[in-house]
Amino acid sequence: MKILRMTRTEQADTRLPLPAYETEGAAGMDLRVNFPPEMRAKGVVLAAGQRMLLPTGLKFEIPQGFEVQIRPRSGLALKQGVTLVNAPGTIDSDYRGEVGIILINHGHEPVIISHGDRIAQMVFAAVTRCEIVETKILTETGRGEGGFGSTGVV
């Protein structure tokens, strides 16, 4: 996968580290918020219940047949109640714009997001596509139409 750091004219801070695996067994690489110059000193405050699109300053070239899944960071979720609105988010292989992260604060207190903070993680994954075939009948199963909680204790 190729990653393009946005140029200085696009106001991204190219001194921030690229996404990287933090440990030998990590499945995801951390993504950092990359604010424009006028926002770097103060960052932003994410109020309780508020959601916000945060910039990464990165663009991806993902090979056909793959996606990048954007997932929450468990430490932010546990300690501050901050997670992703659309988890996991998907970056498609044909998207070439800046990758943005949509955070939401489910906590009770405001959270300060500072320039360079690790705000999400990305997982590189294969995509399997299918062909849709319309039918008039579906194969019977033991479960049938049983929905939420129908296979055990809720």
Describe the structure.
The protein has 154 residues and is mostly beta strands. The chain has a single domain (2-126), classed as Deoxyuridine triphosphatase (dUTPase) (Deoxyuridine 5'-Triphosphate Nucleotidohydrolase, Chain A, Distorted Sandwich), CATH 2.70.40. The protein is built from one helix and ten strands. The protein has one helix at residues 74-80, and strands at residues 2-5, 29-32, 44-46, 51-61, 66-71, 82-84, 89-91, 98-105, 111-113, 118-126. The strands form three sheets. The protein has a four-stranded antiparallel sheet. Strands 2-10-5-7 form a four-stranded antiparallel sheet, with no helix packed on it. The model has no long low-confidence stretch (mean pLDDT 93).
